[in-house]
Design goal:
The protein is mostly beta strands and 241 residues long. The protein has one domain. The protein is built from three helices and 14 strands. The longest helix has 14 residues. The relative contact order is 0.22.
């Protein structure tokens, strides 16, 4: 009887379908990137602004927020544990798309374009993006750290790069030195890990995140696609885990 029970459970486990975390659809979804730092005294208001997007009805539908912490403020008596040199390099690469390249915090970028309207955007409205590439990204979660991405609509004559990011939510950081000394900062949509998805065939990709930080578990995942050599997101999909 025990053997039969184990066999039945094994058969049931094989029929469990993967969980669909996100589906971008074919209409272009905006990727809202915030470049921030715990060492920057002007960053908390921007962090609070993007945190309010948690309650926006269009979250994950028409836009996906992602917060990168840069490392160029880490010499101000406080090292941001969530910062990294690759985050800084991404901001630099994006700035090269603009007429007046510059990197600073807090810095908002929407679908590759510099945006400063967050200070006057009382109703959390975002600028419209007219471009529609017909690209579609579906993210399926196969188990705790294994995912499958189904991509469609890409051109056969272009080369693409696919990335994923694991996001932390409701993270509290008590700052004890530097410009924000004494403040309790809250982080949402914070990039805990991001990487390039390596695959020869970009129509269906499976990958493992191998995330081992038990202190701050990821609460959401984001996948976006770029044209090779350009960091501008062409399409993005994201959702809570």
């Amino acid at each position: 009887m025990k053997t039969i029970a184990v066999l039945i459970l094994s058969m049931l486990s094989l029929t469990v379908e993967a969980k669909i975390v996100a589906d971008s659809g074919t209409k272009r979804v905006q990727m809202v990137e915030l470049f921030s730092s715990e060492s920057c005294s002007s960053c908390p208001p921007a962090d609070q602004w993007i945190g309010k997007l948690k309650d926006h009805p269009d979250l994950w539908k028409t836009f996906v927020p992602v917060v990168f912490h840069v490392d160029y403020w880490n010499n101000l008596n406080w090292k941001d544990e969530y910062s990294g040199e690759p985050m800084t390099q991404r901001q630099i690469a994006l700035s090269k798309l603009w007429k007046s390249p510059s990197v600073y915090t807090p810095g908002f970028v929407i679908s590759g374009q510099e945006w400063g309207g967050w200070r006057s955007s009382k109703n959390l409205s975002l600028p419209a993006v007219a471009n529609d590439y017909g690209l579609r990204i579906i993210i399926e979660q196969k188990n705790k750290d294994e995912y499958k991405v189904i991509l469609s609509g890409q051109s056969n004559t272009k080369k693409y790069v696919l990335h994923y990011a694991l996001l932390g939510m409701d993270i509290d950081s008590k700052i004890t030195s530097g410009e924000n000394s004494g403040k309790l900062l809250k982080h949402d949509f914070l990039v805990l890990k991001w990487n390039t998805i390596e695959a020869k065939d970009l129509s269906q990709i499976s990958f493992k995140t191998n995330f081992e930080n038990k202190k701050v578990p990821p609460k959401a995942i984001v996948v976006w696609i770029e044209a090779e050599g350009r960091p501008e997101p062409l399409q993005v999909a994201g959702g809570y885990l």
